[in-house]
Structure formats: C-alpha cells, structure tokens
Write a structure and sequence with these properties.
The protein folds into 5 domains: 35-100, no CATH class; 106-239, Roll (FAS1 domain), CATH 2.30.180; 245-378, FAS1 domain (Roll), CATH 2.30.180; 380-511, FAS1 domain, CATH 2.30.180.10; 522-648, Roll (FAS1 domain). 32% of the residues lie in helices and 26% in strands. Helix 4 packs antiparallel against helix 5, helix 11 crosses helix 15 (304-312) and helix 20 crosses helix 21 (438-447). One of its GO terms (molecular function) is cell adhesion molecule binding.
C-alpha cells in the first residue's frame, strides 16, 4: 500500500508515472476507493498514511494505509488526515515522509507515540530497566486519553504498586515475543505476563481490531526489542475473569430471571459444553424482565419454544466488541433472527436502545448488561408482530372490532394481514364504512384469519381452510417464481409478500390485497351479464346429460369466452360444435383448470403451462396483457365461491381441426 505511492513519487518520467498510477488504481479498484481519494493520497507524497478520527468520540485509528475509502462512522463523516507511516518522518523541503526513523527500545518507542502516562507508570514500577534492554516483548500501551478515563479504583491500584515490578495492571499489557497485526486472528488469545492471564484479540469487517474489546488505535510500531501497539483503554485483569459465561451469569446477582430461564431450558449445560467456543451474552437485567407484563412473561416462560427463542436471541456465537460497531450492523444470534447494532455519538445501541458500556470478559466470551429484553418474533404476540410491521390501519380495525385481546393473549391463529398499502388501496368509502361499523369490522378481521399455525412450508395449492368467521373459506394458491424460494404463495388472489412471521400465539403473513369473501358462484356471476350466454348454455347442456362431468364444488379457474368470441367462429361452425356433445364437452373442459390461477404472480417473459381438464394451455404476460394460448384476457381475477374467472376474447378449441 505504501510502496506503490513511493514508487510514483520517485519517478520523473510522465509515462512511467501514468503506468504506476494505473497500477495503483488497479490494486485499489477492487475496494471501490473513489479516484479523487486516490489522487488526494498520491498528492501527499510517499510513506504517508491515513488517520481516521471522529470528533467528540474515542474513534481514532491510524490505518497504516495510504488509500482509504471514506465512510460514515456512527452517522457522521470522520476527519481524514495524513501522517507519516510507521517508521518514517518528514524531511524539510521534501514532500511526504522520506526520512527513516532509527529503531528504539519499546519504552522509548511508546513514549514517542504519546503513551507518556503508561511509560511513567512503567518507570515508577521499575519495569523499564527490563523492558528497555531485554525482550523481545509486545506492549499494548494505553493512550494518555485512556488514563484520563480510568476509575479511582484503578488509579489507586496502580499507585499502590509504585516501585513494584509485579504491578498486575502493567504486566497485563505485556506479552512475550514480537507480535504484529499480521499475526492477529479473530478470537485469538495471547498470554500476558500477569500470571499467564489471557488477552483476547478480535478482528472485524469494519476494519477495527480490538484487544479485550479495547480498540487498537496504532499498531505495529517496531522497536529494537519488540513491538508497540497503542490502545484506547486500560486493560484491567479485574474485569477479565477465569470463569465461563454460565458461571458469570449465575454469580452476578443481577440476572436471576435470566438464570431461571436458562435453567428451565437446560441452557446452562449448553453454555458450559461449548466452553472452547466464543460467545456474547446480551444479558437482560431483572429490571429489564420486570418491564414485561407478568402475564406475558409467564406465557413466554411456559412455552418451551418461545423461551428457547428468547434465550437464543440474546446469545451471539462469537465475541462482539462495541468499538467494532460503526453503523447499523445486523448480527446473527444462536436463533433464527438477527439483532441490530447501531451507534451515534452517544454510544452503541442494540435493538434501537442504548447498550451500557460496561462488560465482563469471561473464559469463553463477553457479557453485556441490557436494560431491555430483545424479544424475538417467537416470543411476541400477533398484535406485537403487526405493530412491528407498522400495520396501523389493520390494527385499528382489530381494536375497533374488539379483537385485540384475542390476538394478544389467545389462540393459535394464522393471520393474513393486509399491508398498509393494501388497506389504503381500498375505496375511501369502503375504508370509512369499516371504521364506523363495528360488526363489519369484526367480520372483516375474522375473515383474514384461521385456526392453527399454518406456515408456508405446510401450504399446498388449492388448500382450503375455514376462516375465523366460521362462514367463509380461505383458499390457498402456489405459483412458480424466478426469485426467492421459487414459489409464491397466495390466498384468495392476494399474494403473501412477507411470509411466516411466527409469534407466541400464531403465524402472520403480510399480503398485498385486502380480502373480501366471495358470495356468489361462477355461474351466478356470469348469469348477471348476457355477454356470456353461449358459454352458460353450453355448460347447462353438457351437465344436463351428465350432471357429474364437472365437479364445480372445488376451487377452479374458468377461462370464459364472450359471446362475441363464440360468434367469431362463424354460425355454421358454432352450430356444429354446439350440436356435437362429445366435442362440446372437450371444448368446455379446455376452459376449466382445477387450479386457481390469479394473474398477478405471472412474470413477463415466462410461459406458464397450466393443465385444464382436457389438455394444457400456455399463459403469458407481455406488455401488460395476459394471453391464454392466442386468446387475450379482457377481464381478470373475478373471484367466486367455487373459483376464479378470467374473461377471454377467443374460444380455446381442442387440439384438432373442426371445420
């Protein structure tokens, strides 16, 4: 990173400089660093590196990189400045940093880096005589700002060891050997010189590296007898205990509710059994649990699945250090969900609420204290899930209908909840009517729900279930799709846009249309319009001779030609068809599919082969038009009690000539 910049400046020939700059752009292009950032870095001269800092916070990183992509830190733009890279210095009259610093021992190197207070404590303890001559050692030296933030208790313990080279805090910052950042790995342990106590190194995608969750601000400063890294906090062995996370939770005293839940779920043994693995526990305090109503908490704790989901939602399968959070970051838990970390100038948040800065490091991870409980979906009621999805219009009707308590505390139900956009797509007069007539609102809400937990992996095409109104059925549809799982699920012509939000008392699916029960059969709907008389007469003729030839009680799709479409066949041809009962039956069967086919999930550019009761028709969607073979759908998606109707402008004759 640095050497490419140096070569660019050494060159005197323009063509060489262009070649070198092109090489630089090629190297950094993969990281999407804008060209102006590259040019700005090139203008600084050789051996110059970026320092990233955010005013008013502890965020300050000497990157040891010449090229650095600008980014937001906790919602704000950090200051980017340039300093000499490690080991170099400026020479008067030259651009960049062309002077090479002499190597010094680790004490003098730490002093030069501004760790004056740490060096003073080292000297007062008498450790300097060893550290300045022997080695090699690696020192993680706290900055002077870190000492300003230390507690009185820490200061007292440091002061009490003056003149004593066995100072626990100082020894805890020292490791035998020369360890640079090239050796760092995620969840790597180093052995300190204090009783062999461990130090935990972590690396994150945010380019933050930590030791015991303190940020390593400056790294890899070479010395004659070791390496110096500057960190932003004091490493205190008092806050790093040689106990596993399970012991820490039990013995802390603030987590009795959490301990009880873990005992009931057998999670204590699970945490102990994975002692060699690392984890983060976001531990809600007893006060946090008290913020949940006793009725709801009891139900969660008595529901094995909900309780397990709750516990898993507070355990991350790796060590999460808060300095690594520089913006919104979704972190997978042991459960099915992710928790969201974010930050601003005031600090880090989890679940959109402040996270305390205090933490405890154990043998196999870290514990943070939460002032709130992170409820996963499985521990939430259907009402809470609807609130999460901001379904305010549907919720307004639920409450107006007097059904909030049912969906909050009872059931197991499956709810097909219309999105906010679906609710506002209703005619204003319809929405106003629902909001003013309690009985209509009650029926409306009940029609959008059914008994039991029905997730999409247990749905089948043409599956029928009774809605909670106990009068009208809900019919499910499955369609192929080029995205996601390859299947789109629907109910009564509406598509499920957000599936399987499973709560403690049921499952919620968010749909893109409001549902109203069909009240008339397909035949009754068609009889209301004289335009379809030929199709109806043909159906009556065939079923009169054979009443059971069509099972019209099950959901079906009817492709209904208009009278005009039949008349286009010509009178003579039409009469021959109508008088030939066998061929007429085949023709009608070719217009009926045993699947309920809605037009909305049909994707442009695809051809859908749909079996009819006779053959297969090909359906396409192109330029906003739906075609069934060579017929165009002129009215679509007319729901009936026994299926769905699409009006077409041509007759779908069977595969044979009939002239």
């Amino acid at each position: 990173n640095r050497s490419s910049g140096s070569r660019t400046r050494v060159s005197r020939r323009p063509d060489t400089m262009l070649v070198t700059l092109w090489a630089v752009v090629s190297v950094v292009g993969a990281t999407s660093i804008p060209w102006w950032n590259i040019k700005l870095a090139e203008d600084q001269g050789p051996n110059v590196c970026v320092v990233e800092e955010l005013s008013g916070t502890k965020h300050r990183i000497w990157t040891e990189c010449k090229y650095w992509k600008s980014r937001d830190i906790c919602g704000e733009k950090p200051l980017i400045r340039y300093e000499c890279c490690e080991g170099f210095k400026q020479i008067t009259g030259t651009q960049g940093c062309t002077g090479v610093k002499p190597l010094k021992n680790i004490i003098d190197t730490a002093r030069d880096l501004g760790a004056l207070k740490f060096v003073k404590y080292i000297e007062d303890s008498g450790l300097d005589s060893e550290l300045s001559k022997e080695g090699p050692y690696t020192i993680f030296a706290p900055s002077d700002e870190a000492f300003k933030e230390m507690s009185r208790e820490q200061k007292s313990r440091l002061d009490n060891y003056k003149g004593n080279a066995l100072n626990p805090i100082l020894l805890y910052h020292i490791v035998d050997g020369r360890i640079t950042s090239t050796h760092f790995k995620g969840d790597m342990f180093l052995i300190s010189r204090y009783e062999g106590r461990k130090l935990r190194i972590n690396k994150y995608s945010s380019r933050v590296e930590t030791i015991n969750c303190a940020t390593i601000q400056r790294k890899d400063h070479e010395a004659t007898n070791g390496v110096v890294h500057i960190i932003d906090s004091i490493l205190d062995p008092m806050f790093t205990v040689s106990r596993d996370l399970a012991e820490l939770v039990v013995q802390d005293g603030r987590f009795q509710e959490l301990t009880k839940a873990m005992d009931q779920a057998g999670y204590m043994n699970k945490l102990r059994s994975v002692q060699q693995q690392s984890a983060t526990i976001l531990a809600p305090s007893d006060e946090a649990f008290q913020r949940i109503s006793q009725k709801r908490l009891t139900r969660i704790m008595n529901d094995n699945t909900a309780r397990q989901a709750l516990l898993e939602n507070h355990i991350l399968p790796h060590v999460m250090c808060t300095p690594a959070v520089i913006g919104e970051h979704k972190v997978r838990t042991l459960g099915l969900e992710k928790v969201v970390f974010d930050c601003d100038k005031l600090g880090v948040k989890v679940g959109n609420k402040p996270l305390r800065s205090e933490f405890t490091l154990g043998e196999n991870g870290v514990i943070y204290v939460l002032d709130h409980v992170l409820l996963p979906d499985r521990a939430k009621s259907l009402i809470q899930l609807a609130e999460d999805e901001k379904l305010s219009s549907f919720l307004q009707l639920v409450r107006f209908a007097g059904l909030e308590d049912a969906f909050e505390n009872f059931g197991e139900y499956t709810v097909f909840a219309p999105s906010e956009a679906a609710m506002f797509a209703l005619p204003e007069v319809t929405l106003k009517d629902l909001r003013s007539d309690r009985d209509k609102a009650h029926k409306f809400v009940l029609y959008h729900a059914t008994q039991g937990r029905i997730k999409t992996n247990f749905m089948s095409d043409n599956q029928v279930m009774m809605s909670l109104d106990n009068e009208n059925q809900l019919r499910l549809q499955l369609y192929r799709s080029t995205s996601g799982s390859g299947i789109v699920h629907g109910v009564e012509g509406a598509l499920i846009k957000i599936p399987d939000r499973e709560g403690i008392n049921g499952v919620m699916h968010i749909i893109n249309k409001v549902l109203f029960p069909a009240t008339r059969s397909s035949g009754e709907i068609l009889k209301e319009n004289a335009t379809y008389s030929i199709f109806l007469d043909a159906m009556n003729k065939v079923t009169k001779d054979n009443p059971n030839i069509f099972d019209l009680t099950k959901p079906a799709t009817f492709f209904v030609p208009t009278d005009q479409a039949f008349n286009r066949l010509g009178n003579a041809r039409l009469q021959r068809i109508l008088t030939d009962n066998i061929y007429l039956t085949k023709t009608l069967k070719n217009h009926i599919s045993e699947q309920m086919i809605c037009t909305e999930p049909l994707e442009p550019g695809l051809q859908y082969s749909i079996p009819t009761r006779l053959n297969v028709v090909e359906i396409t969607s192109q330029n906003g038009k739906i075609k069934v073979n060579d017929a165009t759908v002129i009215h679509s998606d007319i729901l009936s009690t026994n299926g769905i109707i699409h009006i077409i402008n041509k007759v779908l004759l069977p595969d044979q000539n009939y002239d």
